[in-house]
Amino acid sequence: MLIVMNRLEGNVALITGGSRGIGAAVALRLAEEGADVVLTYENSAERATEVVEQIKARGRRALAIQADSAIPEALTAAVDEAAAMFGRLDILVNNAGVFLVGPLEDLGPAEIDRTLAVNVRAPFAASQAAVRHMGQGGRIISIGSNVAERAVFPGLALYSMSKTALVGMTKGLARELGPRGVTVNLVHPGPTDTDSNPADGPNAEVIAGFTAVGRYAETAEIAATVAHLASADGSYITGASIHIDGGFTA
């Protein structure tokens, strides 16, 4: 894959939930393009450390901060720490999420509260905190889901609702922050090969069959679009919901 080196030279990026999966791939791609990277993690300290070391091996500065995205104060503190440590903050990637599914009748207040806290309130809170440190050219990019638009299996109502909320947030913030030179966009990945949803999992063949191309995405394919939006090449894209889903929603 051709990578345009140094498009993000001098930038500082914060990725929530950046210790694994799509978040880790985004962290590494932004570092390869020249950004210094801060990532948050909830429990995966060892994996977060591995990502940090990989970023440093690419010649960039890196930091991992433990923060539960369900706690707004912890998330705000992480954003402020990142900006203080590296002297600026240019890019926020709202990646952390929870995937709680089940029949409507079985989803209690705890599941509902946790989903909305991490998938909806956290991106809003992180964006609030980040924009205080951003100037002209700032970027806010959230990671949504293909099921925000097409929920093909039962039991996805809560998760789909939480990811659909990001569409409204993205459009509203794009209007509000556009005059300040900050773009806000939403990336909807389709089936992606991660630990939690492996391309060789028990339901993978069925899930891949819903795409037009008949396969799962690699995390690097999602990261490539995030990197484009984060760079100057994406400066005229804002308020957009971009599907990287192999035609899942076609």
Automatic annotation (TrEMBL):
UniProt keyword terms in alphabetical order: Oxidoreductase
Keyword Protease annotated: no
Record-level Gene Ontology MF annotations: oxidoreductase activity
Pfam families assigned to the protein according to its UniProt record, in alphabetical order: adh_short_C2
Enzyme Commission number: 1.1.1.-
Cited InterPro entries: NAD(P)-bd_dom_sf, Sc_DH/Rdtase_CS, SDR_fam
Enzyme class name: oxidoreductase
Keyword presence, Ion transport: no
Protein family per UniProt: Belongs to the short-chain dehydrogenases/reductases (SDR) family.
UniProt name for this protein: 3-oxoacyl-ACP reductase family protein
Organism: Streptomyces orinoci
